[in-house]
Amino acid sequence: MRDILLTTDGLITIKNKTVVLIRRAKAPFEDKLVMPGGHVETEDESVAHACARELEEEIGLKISPEKLKLLKILDAPGRDPRPGRRISVVYWANLKEDPDLQAGDDAAKVILRSIKSLKKEEVGFDHWEVIKMLLKKG
Questions:
Q1: CA 114, CA 7: separation in Å to the nearest integer?
Q2: Domain 4-137 classified CATH 3.30.43.10?
Q3: Where are the domains of the chain?
């Protein structure tokens, strides 16, 4: 069996209307919109702490892991074209005010978009599955 890698993504919304995404700076899915996230880096790091760390590294958002709510697990085989199997634990937080965000790490740019304006073909990985959840909530 190939390596299984644990990853995490953060679905950040603002006032339940705007979603915070990044434009990926590198392959796979270069230039596509994705949720900020990345790998759990050590055996001592919880997934929620990894998510909070990645949010700070990729978009400059400082948030306590305790404020992140478990939302979904993305685990379909082949969901990520890189070697190994990546299973992502997705957390969600809704911010009440517009944050000051800056792109860093794997992010070419931070993108704030109305949830309803997003289209499947703009979104990388299987992150559209999570966006669909938001659209259904209305």
A1: 26
A2: no
A3: 4-137
Q: What is the pTM of this model?
A: 0.94
- pLDDT reported for residue 138: 63
Spatial distance between the Cα atoms of 32 and 80, rounded to a whole number of angstroms: 14
Radius of gyration of the chain (CA): 14
Q: How many other β-carbons are positioned within 10 Å of the β-carbon of residue 92?
A: 19
Contacts 24+ apart (CB under 8 A), 18-21: 18/112, 18/113, 18/114, 18/115, 19/112, 19/113, 19/114, 19/115, 19/118, 19/131, 19/134, 20/59, 20/61, 20/99, 20/101, 20/110, 20/111, 20/112, 21/110, 21/111, 21/112, 21/113, 21/123
What is the token pair recorded at 70?
């478990």
